[in-house]
Amino acid sequence: MAGIKALVGLSFSGAIGLTFLLLGCALEQYGVYWPLFVLIFYVLSPIPTFISRRLSDSTESSSACRELAYFITTGIVVSAFGLPIILARKNTIQWGACGLVMTGNAVIFLTILGFFVVFGGGDDFSWEQW
């Protein structure tokens, strides 16, 4: 039952994060959809960690593969926070939209981190129970 509560909580926080992102784009005073390009970063951010966990042999020690995956993931997350700032500095979007997108980024990336904490702990978890 705890897994279902965690899944519902992660779904809710993901919906809140996407709501902030869409508010930063669709409100009448902002009206520009360029910040939606951060969706690419949302999709790309967990991929290096998935690959490193698949290729890594041990879960308790650090490996070069896992450290490289963390480095690439950090670069993707920093890029997702940097894109709205660059768009706001170039007056492509307004600063209010930038703030909403950055809030959405924080919520979404914390949701992704929560997913790895809850469901990525070990091999004893099975998706077949869903």
Short structural summary:
By secondary structure, the protein is mainly alpha-helical. The chain has helices at 2-26, 38-44, 47-55, 64-89, 95-119. The protein has a domain at 20-50 and 66-115.
What is the global morphology?
flat
Count of helical regions: 5
Q: What composes the largest sheet?
A: none
User: End-to-end distance, in Å?
Assistant: 11 Å
Structural class: mainly alpha
Write the element-wise H/E pattern from the N-terminal end onward: HHHHH
Q: How much helicity do the residues have? A: over 70%
Low-confidence stretches: none
Describe this structure as you would to a colleague.
This protein is mainly alpha-helical and 130 residues long. The chain has a domain at 20-50 and 66-115. It is built from five helices and no strands. The chain has helices at 2-26, 38-44, 47-55, 64-89, 95-119. The termini are close together. The relative contact order is 0.19. The model has no long low-confidence stretch (mean pLDDT 88).
Q: Which features does this protein show?
A:
single chain, mainly alpha, about 130 residues, about 0% strand, flat
Indicate the topology.
Blueprint: H1 2-26, H2 38-44, H3 47-55, H4 64-89, H5 95-119
Helix pairs in contact: 1-5, 2-4, 3-4, 4-5
